Structure formats: structure tokens, C-alpha cells
Amino acid sequence: MRSIRLAFRTLFRTPFVTTIAVLSLALGIGANAAIFSLFDQILLRPLPVADPQRLVNLSAPGPKPGSQSCGQAGDCDDVFSYRMFRDLEQSQTVFAGIAAHDRFGVNIAYQDQPLTGDGMYVSGSYFPTLGLRPAIGRLLTPSDDQSIGTNFVAVLSYAFWQSRLGGDPGVLGKPVTVNGQSLTIVGVAPDGFSGTTLGVRPLVFVPISMRGILTLGFKGFENRQSYWAYVFARLKPGVTVTQAGAGLNTLYHSIINDVEAPLQKGMSDATMKRFRAKQVALTPGWRGQSSMHKESQTPLLMLFSVTGIVLLIACANIANLLLARGAGRAMEMGVRLALGAGRGQLVLQLLLESVLLASLGGLASLLVAKWTLASIASLLPSDGSAVLQFTLQPAVLFFAAGLAVATGIAFGLFPAWHSTRGELVTTIRANAGHISGARAAARFRATLVTLQISLATALLIAAGLFMKSLINVTRVDLGVHVDSVITFGITPEKSGYDSVRALELYGRVEAALAAIPGVTGVTTSMVPLIAGDNWGTDVHVQGFPDGPDIDNNSRYNEIGADYFGTFGVRTVAGREFTAADRNGAPQVAIVNQAFVKKFNLGQGAVGKFMSTGSPDSLNIQIVGVIPDVKYSEVKKPVPAVFYIPWRQDTHVSSLNFYVRSPQPETVLRTVPGVLKKIDPGIPIEDLKTMPQQIRDNVFLDRMISILSAAFAVLATLLAAVGLYGVLAYSVAQRTREIGVRMALGADAGRVRGMVLRQVSGMMGVGAAVGLLGALALGQAASSLLFGLKGYDPVVFGLSLVALTVVALCAGYLPARRASEVDPIQALRYE
Predict the structure, then answer these.
(1) 282-286, 463-467, 472-476 — which one is most confidently predicted on average?
(2) What is the chain's Cα-based Rg?
(3) Cα 192 to Cα 135: distance, rounded to the nearest angstrom
(4) Best CA proximity match to 114, nearest among 671, 507, 676
């Protein structure tokens, strides 16, 4: 305690230095803690289940002829057919349990309280394989999904039970309406468990065998060419991943060759060979299954590296401050050593001071981390900010504490060692005039500042690359005019509508929206525009060959009348859809120019026929060609796309509406009331403006650009503070030398030039090293950049100019102070 009190007194003797040090550390540690919070949630946090290290995820890469449905849990290599899952479940011998799951959208209502969100189809083995116990009631078991469409039971998520039902234990045995079907509540999932897919927070878990009931039109249970189920398993005790893979693939290989290979039609010999050679791949499943793991890894590592560099620059500042203060305490250290204090004892005392200083910075960093997390949350789409936690969790607090202690030792070690190496007589001699730091300390301080400049250079250039990439993204020609357009979606099926009533509802909603004052256009589509969704199917086109290994896949959308006109798109040839293109009328399609090019339609595309079924039934006539407009992603090339009228479909489960008005914000507030008058039980999904939807589509670019720019500016300011501190201290130590130079005839300009030459030297070396670091950062971040490579001469040049200006500004004040030294007073003082 005595040492701690002494450390506190020492720190508060120099309040200005202590304040600067605490603020620098707070910024560095806080930025790192904020990014660590995301890093921990997305890449490090295991599932809250028993022994998660024994879980493995299954994937089946290779040819998958037929339909594939993949989503947030992973890409299409990861999905299995339902029949294949059941075959593996019944015959495997290497797992303690194997389970399947798939996300679906729900409209859930309990006692007339509707809520829209996510649900999870799970096999009866899902909860037993995870080793979970219910909060109340029971969880789903294998007996709950042995037969298709007969198990009307549900397990609520703990969060839904608490937030919407008040944690009422009386819900057991009560009915809950899920997508229009009444299910019996049999239990509540345990607290803290939100499913096995990061990015999805299910409100309810239902048997996977109920998909045909809750998702109308689904017929993928018996079809072995319908791939949609995600699968994971738990290893048996004593079984390794390698052993499990070998045992499972023996079974999988026999099913593929004996059962599924004979079902394949029109497959070439080469593709059949690859199909027969397919194997199941096993990967660690302790984090669950989510595409966010792969998609977020590079951006988070990049941001973590950037904040780490900011912290290094802050630590270099503190080390310089402590070296300067240590020089002022040289007499104190010499006297202590002369009186018998051991050097180790003094080093420990000085380290205690630096750790205490870092601890104060760590406490202040929690505010910085909180503000940084709030800023990150504001940059994310609403669904992303709802999935992650932006509060200071215990893991973040421990990380900040550990980082504070580590940095305290790291930046305090050399100053503590250097400050205690002198003897009393030597110290007294050295302190006869002004305090004169040792050459080693001066070189160390200059090296630290040079390192700061190099790190700041690398960060400024990296931030410049990200900002230019974002500018390139904002300049992408979407092909559509989205200003003054709002959008939202509805899914009547989730509220119990059948196909006929749903089609009638869509027409009523269109008419009601068109009647809103100021509305100049209303249209619809099944696939939301530029929202990341992709729907594709194989097509047969007149004049284009069919056969093994020929790519005849195309994206598609079902749209309403005047869809392209509402978005300001003019047809290249032919016409748009009208209200007359409905069920019973001749089937028609509109294609984009990428479709025309892919299927070699040439100038005569309008009038030709195509089909999504048999190649012998070309029953859809192409009536229009449009320019290539963005389909699902701002940054991706436009794929081949064909459009058909949704009014010619007998089953339209959901629809997205687009309303154009010169006052979109007014319409945005009006729409909920309009829908409520039609049917208050239909929830509105993703109500927003189209510009907001575009921003959400490129949120990752915006987030990385803004954060990297903010951290780069912070790093540059910290480096400038460090440069100023070193130069100011150097000028103070060289007062006598400067006085002699001026007494011998050196004018103020020459003295200023002497100091600024020191700036130039550090700037030159630091910038050279920083350029190499920037090239490495640019190459590492190349996958995140759009429209440029990992280097750009303009960005490099502007970043160097900006840093040079900052460095010269930081050096100007010490240089001017040096030029104002009075030789007589300086020499008299000496």
C-alpha cells in the first residue's frame, strides 16, 4: 500500500503529463476493446452448450444437381438433402448424435400478440446432440419428428418467452400460432441459447418435419436433389475428427454410389465421376454454423490490426513521457541508490507507477469503448445491430484490464531500467546545469517517434485506400433510380392466408398505396431489389443447346406491372409488363442484356421462347429486353436475369412493394396505417427507403472506411503529439548549445532549420518504413477494396503530404521556441 500511495503522489505531481498519458492510453485501449468485443462475439465465442469442442459441422462439396437453398448458416456446399440426412442419422456409428436445422421466417402470435422474426426448423436430435436442458417444460426429442407433418409442437426461445410473455411458466401446453398454424408449447430453451447460427435469433424451434405445413408449397422431403438442410454432429468419446470422417465417408460413399448416382439424369461422365467421388468434410463446430464467421474474419482482423497500431503509437508516447520525467528524477534515483535501495526495488516502483498510469487509462478506456461500440452499431443495418451486443460484456472488461497491465509493463520497462542505472556522483555532475539525458535515451526517444511516424503513415494510406474504395462503390451505376422510393415486404402466408387470398391481398395493397396523396408510382417484386437475395433456376432457351455440363442457370425475379418504369428503366426492345399479364394470359418474360449475351439471343431476343421446366415445353415468350441493372449486390457484376409477372403465378408467398413519391418520408410514415386498415394482422417487414437499402447492402465498406479513417486520424494526432514532445524536450536539453550557436552568429532562421532538419530526418525514415507497411496492409486488405488494388499512387502521395504537413506543424513550435533563446541568459544560466 505504501508503494501504491507513493506511486499516486508521484503521478499527481505532474498532472499535465499524467492527463496526456491517461487520455492517450484510453483512446488506444478503448479502440482495441471495442473491436475485441465484435471479434469475441463473432470469431471466439463458443456455443453455450456442453463440451462444444466435440461438435463438428458437416459439409458436402461437389456436384449438386437440382435445387439448392442456402442462407445464413453457410454456403451451398454445406447443405444436404433431407433424405441424405436421415440416411446418415440412421446408419452412422461415429457420432453420439447428428442433427439438422434450417432457418425460416415466422409470424408468431400468442394470445393475439403478433411478432415477425426468425424461426428454426430442427430435427428431434438437435437439442439432445447439443446437450441442452430446458428452462421449463421439455425440449424437442426424436419422437417429435418421426413422421412428416404430424408434430404440432414448439419450443420457445428464452428471450421471446421473457420479453413477450413475461416469463410466465403457465405457457406450457398453451397454443401458439406460427405462420397461421396452431402449435402446442412444450418447453422453453435455456437462458443464453439463441440457436446455432450466428446472425439468427430464433423466436421458436419447431420440428423439421413440419416444414411442409409451415412453409406452403414446400415439397423437398423425399427429393434427393433438393439440398437445404444444415447438419452438425457430436463426436463420440475417444473418436477423433479424422476417425469420424473416415467412418462417415464409408457410409456416405455407399449411399452416393448405390442410391443417388442412378437418379442423376443427363450428367456427363466427368461430372458423374466427381459426383461419385464426393466426400463429407468435417470442420470444428464449437462456434456453430454461420456464414458470418468467414465473411467477418478478414474485416475484423484488419480493424484489430489498425487499433493495435493505434495502441502502439500511444504506448510510444507514454514511453517518451516517462523517459523525460525519468531524466528529471535522476537525482532522486541516485540518492535512493546511494542510501542503499536496490536497483530492482526502484525498477519495481517505477513499473508500479507505469502500471498504475495504464490502469487509469484502462478505466477511462471503457468510456471510449462504449462510444466506439455505439458508433459501430449506428453503421450497421438494423438486423446486424440486433444480432450483436454493443455493451461492455465481462470478456471485454477482462481484455481491457489485461491490455492495460500489459501495456503498463511494456512502455514502462525501458524508462524504469534507464532511470535507475546512474550513480550518485555521476548524477550530481550531470545535474550541475540543465538535466542532460543520456545519448541512449535520446536515440530511443527518436526511434520511438520514427516508429510512430511509420505506423501513422501506414494507417493513413490504408484509410485512404478504404475511402477511395467507398467512393468507387458510391459511384457504381445501379441502372435504376432509387431516390424518392420507399420499400417494404409482406408475407401473408405467415398470417394464415392461402394462395388465392394472398393474391387478392396484394392487389388491394397496391391500390391502397397508389391512392396515397403524392404517390407517382407503385410496383412489386418477389425478390427484393439490391438486398443481397439471389433466386436462380435452370432455363431452356430457344436456339441455345442443352446438355451435360452446359451452364444454363439464370437468376430470376417475379415482378409487377410497370416495375421498370417505376425505377426509371427504359426497355432496350419490346415492352414492359402490364396488369393484363395475369394468370390465364400467355406466359411472358423480360430478360436483361446479360441474359441475351449468355444465351446467344442476339438482336432478335424479343419473340423467342424459353422454359423453366422441360426443354420440350418452351412456353414462355420473351416480350422485352432491358439494360443490365443491379440485381442483388451493388459491388457484384450483373448476372443473367429473366423477369416474369407474379400475377401469372398461382403461389406467391411474399411480395415486396415499392412506392415512389416526391415526399418519401411522409409516405414512410403513412404506409403502416394503410396496411393496418386492410388487415391489422399482417406485419410490415423491412420498411425503409431504397437509398437506405442500398446503404445496408454496402454497410461493410462504409463501416471499414469510416472506422479506419477515424483510427488513422487518431494515430496521426498521437504521432504528432509524440513528435512535439520529443522536439520540445530536445530543445530544452540543448538550450546551452543553441545559446552558444547564436552567440557565435547563428540567426533565428538557421536555428529553426536545425530543429526542422531533425523533423525531416525522422519523417523521411518513418515515411519510408511506413510505405512498406502500407503496401503490406494494402495487399492484406485487397479483398475488401472495390475498384482498385492494394496500392494507389494518388492515395499514397496525398497521405504523405498530409502527414508531412502535420509533422511540420508539430515541429514548428519547438523550432520557434529554439530560435527565441537569448544567448546571454542561456550561458549565464549554465
Answers:
(1) 282-286
(2) 34
(3) 10
(4) 676
Cα separation of 92 and 95, whole Å? 7
According to the model, what pLDDT value does residue 49 have?
95
Answer with the residue of higher pLDDT: 160 or 720.
160
In our burial notation (b when 16+ CB lie closer than 10 A, e otherwise), range 252-274 reads: beebbeeebeeebeebeeebeee
The one-letter code for the residue type at 101 is H
- The pLDDT of 663-667, averaged and rounded, is 92
Supply the mean pLDDT for the chain. 86
Per-residue pLDDT tens digits for 770-809: 899 888 888 888 888 888 888 888 999 998 898 888 888 8
CA atoms within a 13 Å half-sphere pointing along the CA-CB vector of 639: 20
CA dihedral of residues 156, 159, 164, 166 (deg, nearest 10): 100
**C-alpha torsion sign, points 615, 616, 619, 623:** positive
- What is the spatial distance between Cα 458 and Cα 769, in angstroms, rounded to a whole number? 9
- Between 524 and 348, the more confident residue is 524
Q: Tens of pLDDT along 722-743?
A: 777 777 666 666 666 666 666 6
DSSP string, 253-284: HHHIIIIIGGG--S--HHHHHHHHT---EEEE
Nearest residue to 155 via CA among 121, 192, 189: 189
| Residue indicated by cell numbers 403461389 | 651
CA distances from 151 to 148, 209, 292 (A): 8, 8, 32
Nearest to 633 by CA among 726, 772, 529: 529
**β-bridge partners, 109:** 114, 177
DSSP string, 766-827: HHHHHHHHHHHHHHHTGGG-SSS-S--HHHHHHHHHHHHHHHHHHHHHHHHHHHT--HHHHH
Instruction: State the residue for C-alpha cell 425440449.
Output: 139
Measure the CA–CA gap between 719 and 460, rounded to whole angstroms. 12
- Rounded Cα distance, 414 and 420, in Å: 10
Contact of 608 with 541, CB cutoff 8 Å: yes
- Report yes or no: 629 and 529 within 8 Å, Cβ to Cβ: no
The percent of residues in the chain predicted with pLDDT above 70, rounded, is 87
Amino acid at 595: F
Q: Model's pTM, two decimal places?
A: 0.82
Cell numbers that stand for 374 in this block: 455505439
Helix, strand or coil, per DSSP, at residue 487: strand
In the structure, how many helices (H) and strands (E) does the chain have? 25, 24
d(CA 581, CA 560): 9
Residues 6+ apart with CB under 8 A from 490: 505, 509, 654, 655, 657, 675, 682, 683, 684, 685
- Tell me the C-alpha distance between 352 and 346, whole Å: 10
Q: How many CB atoms lie within 10 A of CB 364?
A: 18
Q: What is the DSSP string of 215-259?
A: STT---SS-TTEEEEEEEEEEPTT--HHHHHHHHHHHHHHHIIII
Query: Degrees (nearest 5) of the Cα angle 647, 673, 183?
Result: 70
Q: Report strand pairing: 181-188 vs 153-156.
A: parallel
Residue 332, pLDDT above cutoff 60: no
